[in-house]
Amino acid sequence: MNPKNLIIMVLAVILCCGGCTSTRYLTDSGSIDRQHDMRKNRVGKNIGEGCLNMTFFILAAVVNSEFEPLESERTFKRISVKNESTDTLFVNMVTDVVWKETGYCDIMGIALPSGARQKLLVPYPAAYNVYFRTSSSEEEKLEIRTDNKQKNIRLKPGMTKIDTR
């Protein structure tokens, strides 16, 4: 096999696998279905936009005019939730954003083992209340916004507790 083709194939596999959103640690069937539905919606929108841009590019070349790419507003963001504790974390993410008139974009039932990371697709922009706990700790709450630059959320018990000494 040509080394150039091999490099292109390896890069394509890395891009495809790196862009996947797994539901490995999700236990709630509604949240799993919603993640799959959001991913399909996002992929379909990206493919449609790519085809439209290619058509406009060809049309601009035929008519000999400037090409301006069509860009739609961003509607989703990929975030990563990581468990930095030594125990399994149970995480629920609650928002007021509605998904397709069927309910909220809540992500419930994430069971993250120690050191594990869960990639999630979330609406952009949105605010989430993240509730997390271990089997032996009290529930804690953290608020995140998807419209900031933060993509990685690191959770561990006691991180939201205020020391009152």
Task: Please characterize this protein's 3D structure.
The longest helix is centred in the N-terminal third of the chain and has 35 residues, at 29-63. This protein has a domain at 24-35 and 74-155: Immunoglobulin-like, CATH 2.60.40. The chain has helices at 3-18, 29-63; strands at residues 76-83, 89-94, 107-112, 117-123, 127-133, 140-145, 152-155. It starts with a helix and ends in a 10-residue tail after the last strand. The chain is elongated, with a radius of gyration of 20 Å. Helix content is 31%, strand content 27%.
Q: What features would you highlight for this structure?
A:
165 residues, alpha+beta, single chain, 2 helices, 27% strand, four-stranded antiparallel β-sheet, elongated, three-stranded mixed β-sheet
Distance between the termini: 67 Å
How many runs of DSSP E, i.e. beta strands? 7
Query: Mind telling me the C-alpha Rg?
Result: 20 Å
The CATH architecture of one domain? Sandwich
- Measured by DSSP, the beta-strand proportion falls in 25-35%
Low-confidence stretches: none
- Give the SSE order as H and E letters: HHEEEEEEE
Structural class: alpha+beta
The general outline is elongated
